């Protein structure tokens, strides 16, 4: 009996094992996207177990499973898919792309991460956000599309510099621009212009080669870049080839441009009437003895200005503004080829941009070429190369503060002819005629840039990779400025200035990455590495004059070499960095990073710094009480803290420097800069709290953030006593803060088969304040800007205009002296010398944002972006010449004629016209204006020809489109444009500054 029982139990056990073994089998297959491209790294998990695997580089997978088991396929950026195992052994899966932006893959420093599990504040813009926008630089295409990022081109010149502020200005004396990283390469981004107006070094990057742009805004995301992340980091990723059908794309567009706005100036008759009246009004203050003397003087002046023409009968009425502006144009042509096999993928692109500016004499021509190659040697070993070359030729004009700048022509009276009877420019004008400069000189800048990277990665163990990069960035710029003998201010038979700058940037990095899903609930990511970044710069220039004729335009044609200079400099950064991310059950998210930077720019006692960051997130919607909600389908709380630095202070600020001198024709050296071994970087500590939400499966989504940034150790040149032998010493003294709120809302308003409409809205508020300054918090005043504790950085500081005395037409100013109780004396005076300057405005907007709508109806697509800025003021430094109540002979804005005080009792803001009277011409809020505006930044409408129409010609897509930039502007600003600023100095100020261009282009995009 016992033997039978033992036999039965053994038989049942063997049968059970046999059945179990029979149901467990090997399951394999390939996972691809909906374009047929294999997907590496797809997670395949068997539901209810801890068993799982990932696809290899070719999208293949293999695992053991029993019949009836459910395989869950998941991959960032794609919808999850489940498959039940049946008798079949092969399951080839196609994953559909997810429209949910939470599944986006974001490029972060030295890696990528899913937005769903991100604990940082990063905004991503794709190629669709910047393509087909007719601008000469890719940064302008980002305006209004990234919360907390303010982008302003200095003025309407095609080569104009850009100011980009990520969550406000974090420095006073050091750089305020973000760090740009192109395919892992920190780019050289110094302004190398020699004519007083900045150029944009990143003009060399073509939008058609960009796949995505990520802006790292908080310290948790930027701290991995350590001492260079305080102003934010902009990561640019270029396009790559994909396995599958090769694609060839061609895009051609052409457009016309004009100034967004022109101002009203006096015509000849108005000019004559106003200045005749101004001369008569000056009799009472003793400028002239009687009316007859005044009339005689002013008519003699008119005779001279008219240059022999009959001003009494209106023979000349020159519109100098129209002469300064011109109708511009923008032409773009680019192509790209991409494709690949299971082993190799390639992307090749080329582009040409020709831009004729809206200001006479200003133009740009750029061509780019790029090749990106990736090759897989084995399942473990992958290498690649990125290489690009660009050349940008710029026809430049003088800076805004130069008399020969075209826009200063508006100062010329309308009674002055622009040309002589023989067609040559009139040289007998009150100010130099810019047409003489244009006809007899040129200023050409050429920027050549080579950018390349070789990289590779090897998988040592499953999930563990070693990565290596070597990158090279060459920025080579030449400037050639020829001024002929007939140009204004030229008395040496011509002059040539030629310069060149060569900046080479080397980057070597190596790092380990470990990414592993541990069971069903744990995901771990580790990164650790080192990086060396070395930059060398060489500059030289030479000036020659005395040319035999204007046919000789290079240095060797000059008889006299009158000046020359040259220098070399170098800096290096050596870094160690590490980052760890942990995700538990897609609910609890943690991240920590640290970077240790050493920089040759800082003192020997403070050469190394440590920049840590921590962040955490909680995906509340994954909890049981929200998991089944059909309304609130995504909710995440996150917070971060970290430190970043600012090293943008030049190469040798901490060193004792000596320069060569000549004494009695004998060489020597002298101290040119005292050293400071304790000099170090400015440090910004930032805290960020955010909430991300999604309703109705992503139909409505967005985020709200609050941040606080404190920058300590501000870099200042502190004055020294004269006996020290030097004027200043670079030191870390001062503190400021930025704090603000950002709001983002994305909605899919309509999603039907033939009609789709989505909206993206962002709004940001930033408050900037100086907390401490050197030398006992003393004010630092430069021109019309002040650094004062408790105020904004570079606050506007000037006399406060109080209008016009109705009794006599005098301009009035508030005295603004301090009363014993601390209040201000608000009495008025007609003497600017009796009034006191006060803080009157903020040069930076407090509120800024944008809204983008994207609409698709059948084959028609429409997108448009509005941007807005509020809270900033602009001081028109040229106003005391342009709107000066006929104080001197500059042509005047029309309001000086139409709104002027003429009789007792007149109520107006325009004082009585008085020649040489200085009536209201002091630098005051008379020339200060709010720059609030809303602008239709860009709009595009396109039509895609149906596929059945074009397939017979071997085409896969044909689209025609029309796009515009700066189409409409809604503002009360009285100047040219609320975004135009001076390129010759002064923060928040304009000075004969050109407005941006309004451009409308037609284009054609064809894909094979």
TrEMBL record:
Alphabetic keyword roster: Cell outer membrane, Membrane, Signal, TonB box, Transmembrane, Transmembrane beta strand, Transport
Compartment list: Cell outer membrane
Name by which UniProt lists this protein: TonB-linked SusC/RagA family outer membrane protein
Keyword Signal: yes
Record membrane topology: Multi-pass membrane protein
Any single Gene Ontology cellular-component annotation: cell outer membrane
Principal localisation: membrane
Signal peptide from the UniProt entry: 1-22
InterPro entries listed in its UniProt record: Beta-barrel_TonB (IPR000531), Beta-barrel_TonB_sf (IPR036942), CarboxyPept-like_regulatory (IPR008969), Plug_dom (IPR012910), Plug_dom_sf (IPR037066), TonB-dep_OMP_SusC/RagA (IPR023996), TonB-dep_OMP_SusC/RagA_CS (IPR023997), TonB-dep_rcpt-like (IPR039426)
Domain TonB-dependent receptor-like beta-barrel: 419-801
Domain of life: Bacteria
Family: Belongs to the TonB-dependent receptor family.
Domain TonB-dependent receptor plug span(s) in chain numbering: 115-233
Keyword Zinc attributed: no
């Amino acid at each position: 009996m016992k033997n039978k029982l033992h036999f039965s139990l053994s038989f049942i056990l063997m049968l059970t094992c046999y059945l179990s073994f029979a149901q467990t089998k090997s399951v394999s297959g390939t996972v691809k996207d909906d374009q047929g491209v294999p997907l590496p790294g797809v997670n395949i998990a068997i539901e209810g177990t801890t068993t799982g695997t990932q696809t290899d580089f070719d999208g293949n997978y293999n695992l053991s499973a029993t019949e009836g088991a459910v395989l869950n396929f998941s991959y960032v950026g794609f919808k999850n898919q489940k498959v039940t195992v049946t008798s079949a052994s092969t399951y080839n899966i196609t994953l559909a792309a997810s429209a949910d932006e939470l599944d986006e893959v974001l490029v972060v420093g030295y890696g990528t991460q899913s937005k769903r599990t991100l604990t940082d504040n990063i905004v991503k813009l794709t190629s669709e956000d910047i393509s087909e926008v007719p601008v000469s630089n890719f940064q302008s295409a980002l305006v209004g599309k990234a919360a907390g990022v303010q982008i302003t081109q200095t003025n309407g010149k095609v080569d104009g510099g850009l100011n980009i502020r990520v969550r406000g200005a974090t420095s006073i004396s050091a750089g305020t621009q973000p760090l740009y990283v192109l395919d892992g390469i920190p780019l050289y981004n110094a302004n190398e212009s020699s004519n007083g107006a900045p150029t944009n070094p990143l003009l060399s990057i073509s939008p058609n080669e960009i796949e995505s742009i990520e802006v790292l805004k908080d310290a948790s995301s930027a701290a991995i870049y350590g001492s260079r992340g305080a102003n934010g980091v902009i990561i640019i990723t270029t396009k790559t080839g994909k396995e599958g059908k090769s694609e060839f794309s061609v895009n051609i567009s052409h457009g016309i441009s004009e100034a967004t706005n022109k101002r009203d100036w006096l015509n000849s008759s108005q000019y004559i009437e106003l200045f005749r009246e101004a001369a008569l009004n000056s009799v009472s203050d003793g400028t002239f003895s009687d009316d007859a003397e005044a009339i005689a003087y002013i008519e003699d002046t008119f005779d001279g200005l008219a240059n022999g023409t009959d001003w009494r009968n209106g023979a000349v009425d020159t519109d100098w503004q129209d002469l300064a502006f011109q109708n511009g144009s923008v032409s773009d042509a680019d192509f790209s080829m991409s494709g690949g096999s299971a082993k190799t993928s390639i992307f090749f692109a080329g582009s040409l941009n020709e831009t004729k500016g809206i200001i006479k004499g200003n133009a740009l021509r750029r061509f780019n070429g790029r090749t990106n190659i990736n090759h897989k040697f084995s399942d473990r070993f992958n290498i690649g190369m990125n290489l690009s070359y660009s050349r940008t030729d710029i026809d430049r004009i003088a800076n805004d503060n130069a008399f020969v700048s075209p826009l200063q022509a508006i100062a010329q009276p309308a009674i002055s002819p622009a040309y002589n009877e023989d067609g040559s420019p009139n040289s007998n004008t009150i100010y130099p005629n810019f047409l003489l400069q244009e006809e007899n000189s040129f200023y050409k800048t050429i920027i050549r840039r080579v950018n390349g990277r070789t990289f590779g990665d090897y998988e040592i163990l499953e999930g563990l990779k070693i990565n290596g990069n070597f990158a090279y960035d060459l920025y080579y710029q030449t400037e050639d400025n020829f001024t002929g003998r007939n140009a204004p201010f030229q008395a040496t038979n011509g002059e040539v200035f030629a310069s060149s700058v060569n900046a080479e940037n080397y980057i070597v990095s190596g790092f380990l990455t470990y990414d592993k899903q541990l069971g069903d609930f744990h995901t771990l990511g580790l990164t650790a590495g080192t990086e060396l970044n070395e930059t060398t710069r060489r500059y030289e220039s030479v000036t020659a004059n005395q040319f035999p004729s204007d046919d000789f335009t290079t240095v060797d044609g000059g008889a006299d070499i009158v000046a020359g200079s040259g220098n070399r400099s170098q800096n290096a950064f050596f870094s160690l960095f590490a980052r760890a991310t942990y995700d538990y059950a897609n609910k609890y998210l943690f991240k920590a990073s640290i970077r240790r930077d050493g920089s040759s720019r800082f003192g020997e006692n403070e050469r190394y710094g440590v920049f840590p960051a921590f962040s955490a997130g909680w995906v509340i919607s994954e909890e049981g009480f929200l998991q089944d909600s059909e309304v609130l389908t995504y909710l995440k709380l996150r917070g971060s803290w970290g430190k970043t630095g600012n090293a943008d202070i030049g190469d040798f600020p901490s060193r004792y420097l000596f320069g060569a001198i000549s004494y009695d024709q004998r060489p020597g050296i002298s101290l040119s800069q005292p050293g400071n071994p304790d000099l170090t970087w400015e440090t910004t500590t930032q805290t960020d709290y955010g909430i991300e939400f999604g309703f109705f499966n992503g139909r409505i989504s967005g985020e709200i953030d609050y941040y606080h940034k404190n920058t300590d150790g501000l870099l200042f040149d502190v004055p020294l006593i004269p006996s020290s032998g030097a004027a200043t010493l670079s030191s870390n003294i001062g503190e400021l803060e930025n704090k603000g709120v950002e709001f983002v809302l994305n909605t899919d308003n309509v999603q039907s088969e033939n009609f789709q409409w989505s909206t993206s809205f962002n709004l940001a508020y930033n408050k900037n304040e100086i907390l401490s300054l050197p030398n006992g918090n003393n004010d630092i005043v430069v021109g019309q800007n002040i650094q004062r504790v408790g105020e904004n950085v570079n606050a506007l500081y000037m006399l406060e205009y109080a209008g016009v005395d109705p009794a006599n037409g005098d301009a009035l100013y508030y005295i603004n002296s301090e009363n014993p109780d601390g209040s201000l004396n608000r009495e008025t005076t007609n003497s600017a010398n009796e009034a006191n300057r006060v803080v009157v405005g903020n040069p930076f907007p407090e509120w800024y944002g944008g809204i983008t709508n994207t609409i698709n109806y059948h084959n028609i697509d429409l997108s448009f972006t509005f941007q807005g800025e509020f809270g900033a003021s602009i001081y028109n430094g040229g106003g005391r010449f342009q709107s000066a109540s006929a104080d001197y002979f500059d042509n005047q804005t029309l309001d000086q004629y139409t709104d002027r005080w003429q009789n007792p009792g007149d109520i107006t803001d325009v004082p009585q016209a008085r020649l040489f009277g200085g009536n209201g011409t002091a630098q005051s809020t008379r020339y200060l204006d709010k720059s609030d505006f809303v602008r239709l930044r860009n709009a595009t409408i396109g039509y895609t020809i149906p596929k059945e129409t074009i397939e017979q010609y071997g085409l896969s897509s044909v689209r025609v489109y029309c796009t515009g930039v700066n189409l409409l502007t809604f503002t009360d600003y009285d100047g040219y444009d609320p975004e135009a600023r001076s390129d010759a100095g002064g923060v928040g100020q304009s000075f004969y500054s050109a407005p941006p261009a309004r451009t409308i282009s037609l284009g054609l995009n064809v894909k094979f």
